[in-house]
């Protein structure tokens, strides 16, 4: 019985060793499907500008401009300080004015353009309007005239008249619009809409010319996006604008990694979602177009591969946002937000060496993921080689479970053999 027990014991050790080897072999097979992944989110903001001017009247008193006082008694020959001043509270624009003269006595002479003085040569008269021939920048002001002179030839019969002088000012964006001041109608047939926004005079200062980057950092071993808004270099958008920028994609880890991109919507008001549909958007990776459509970019909700990046590899993701020229005042001052997601997947394999033709072989598909890939300098689409091995990951997992079960089944059998 002792000899038989020794044989049974030796047999058990061999089975145990075989089971252990099977476990390690199975683990080795499963490890080829182990991935490191990381994701970074960039929330991009874009805002439309506004054409918004104000018109106030001032008078010069003791060398300073003060608000003009209406309802005053005037006499023939009086020269009255009256300064209509236009202030631009919105984006740079062109301005024009139209003057309306009214007299309570229809048969009596009243105010005319000849009564106005101090009009700058920068104003030109065409038709019913005076056009300012310089662009009026944000928070800049310009006076139309300086004084109103009452004709000295008026007599007693003009007394009792109630005279008024009304000025209407219009503005149109200077971006993508150039008036022809020699034409009978310098602004053409442009429709002038009522500005419905309050004047707050707020000037938004934004940091410009920031380099955009997404880096898979070797030291931290994670994705890092700088800055946190990839539209930060854009000015306030105006109808007709074409806004462009680019992001440097790089890998500073020791292993070859694949970087992915997709977009996501932020829950926001209906008018902001409508703006996403109106704005054009296109994006390219190293010159290869990934998408062209509107900024909502529903087609990019699914991950798209930006390519495989070897250690030290870099690429350029450039994008364009287009504001349709037909957007009118209804869209002024609207803003909207869209999220961009960058993900990285790194396999537990050795670094991929740079082949002679500078191409990188096709990566394994991340388990449970369906992605789009483009053909670019960092990635070449290839049909997978048919090896005849159709074993699935599930099969490896079942085999692993059975192998672990051997640890419990084999000892029980050995004990029973010892009692015999």
Could you walk me through the main structural features you see in this protein, from its secondary elements to its overall organization?
This protein is of the alpha+beta class. It folds into two domains: 34-48 and 205-373; 53-173, Immunoglobulin-like, CATH 2.60.40. It contains three helices and 22 strands. The chain has helices at 2-31, 270-278, 393-419; strands at 35-47, 53-61, 64-67, 79-81, 83-88, 93-103, 116-117, 123-126, 129-132, 141-143, 147-149, 163-173, 212-217, 222-226, 242-251, 257-265, 280-285, 288-294, 304-309, 314-322, 335-347, 372-373. The strands form five sheets. The protein has a six-stranded mixed beta sheet with strand order 14-13-15-20-17-18. A hairpin with a 2-residue loop joins β2 (53-61) and β3. It is elongated and about 100 Å long. It starts with a helix and ends with a helix. Residues 19-34, 198-207, 354-362, 375-394 and 406-420 have low confidence and may be disordered.
Could you list some keywords that capture this structure?
3 helices, 2 domains, 420 residues, Immunoglobulin-like, alpha+beta, elongated, six-stranded mixed β-sheet, disordered C terminus, five-stranded mixed β-sheet
